[in-house]
């Protein structure tokens, strides 16, 4: 028995296509707005981006959230996702989320990845797997990176500086220019 074909009018087809297209466009716009909001809040993915001059800028997230997390779990280890060999420890010491930050290399400049430091929570120190050297909680003795708080966002400049000290200050900071 033949089945009768339902005829669709060109107007109805156009309306269905228009609504489907509008839905797709609104979904894409909503996704972009959500991603931008997450990026601005610091809950989105951490971003490596070119910095003026010779280095890169890394933003691991919000100081207020990361300071609490580090207080509970210990310093954060970030493997260099930029395809280089710059793994970084982010450490926070103290009660104020706007101060007490250090960022420093996971190992000495001439060491291989096998010689990375590990966090020892019992002693609150970093231990070097190869040389058996021990570094204090603020990373003093390891290559340092400048770290600042801009608003509530942490910003790390991945151009190596001097040895790490609280808030990225170095012994050279006291020199008059």
Structure in words:
This protein has 2 domains: 9-41; 46-169, Rieske [2Fe-2S] iron-sulphur domain (Rieske Iron-sulfur Protein, 3-layer Sandwich). It has 2 helices and 10 strands; from the N terminus they run H-E-E-H-E-E-E-E-E-E-E-E. Mean pLDDT is 77; it is low at 42-54 and 162-177. The protein is 24% helix and 27% strand.
Describe the structure concisely.
With 177 residues, the protein is an alpha+beta fold. It has two helices and ten strands. It is elongated, with a radius of gyration of 25 Å.
The tally of strands reads 10
Ends distance: 96 Å
Class inferred from helices and paired strands = alpha+beta
| Number of helices in the DSSP assignment | 2
The biggest beta sheet reads: 7 strands, antiparallel
State the helical fraction: 10-25%
User: Going across the major beta sheet, what is the strand order?
Assistant: 1-2-10-9-5-4-3
Strand content: 25-35%
Total domains: 2
Our Rg estimate from Cα atoms comes to: 25 Å
Q: What are the SSEs and their pairings?
A:
Elements: H1 10-41, E1 47-50, E2 56-62, H2 63-73, E3 76-78, E4 88-92, E5 101-105, E6 117-120, E7 125-128, E8 134-136, E9 144-150, E10 153-157
Give me some keywords for this one.
alpha+beta; Rieske Iron-sulfur Protein; 2 domains; seven-stranded antiparallel beta sheet; 2 helices; disordered C terminus
């Amino acid at each position: 028995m033949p089945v009768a074909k339902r005829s669709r009018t060109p107007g109805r087809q156009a309306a269905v296509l228009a609504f489907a297209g509008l839905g797709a466009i609104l979904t894409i716009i909503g996704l972009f707005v959500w991603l931008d909001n997450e990026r601005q809040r610091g809950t989105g993915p951490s971003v490596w981006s070119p910095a003026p001059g010779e280095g890169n800028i890394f933003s691991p997230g919000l100081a207020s959230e990361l300071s609490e997390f580090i207080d509970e779990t210990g310093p954060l280890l970030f493997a260099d996702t930029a395809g280089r060999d710059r793994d970084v420890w982010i450490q926070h010491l103290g009660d104020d989320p706007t101060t007490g930050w250090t960022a420093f290399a996971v190992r000495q400049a001439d060491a291989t990845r096998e010689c990375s430091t590990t966090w020892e929570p019992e002693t609150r120190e970093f231990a070097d797997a190869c040389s058996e050297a021990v570094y204090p909680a603020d990373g003093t003795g390891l290559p340092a990176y400048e770290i600042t708080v801009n608003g509530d966002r942490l910003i790390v400049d991945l151009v190596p500086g001097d040895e790490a000290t609280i808030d990225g200050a170095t012994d050279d900071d006291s020199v008059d220019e």
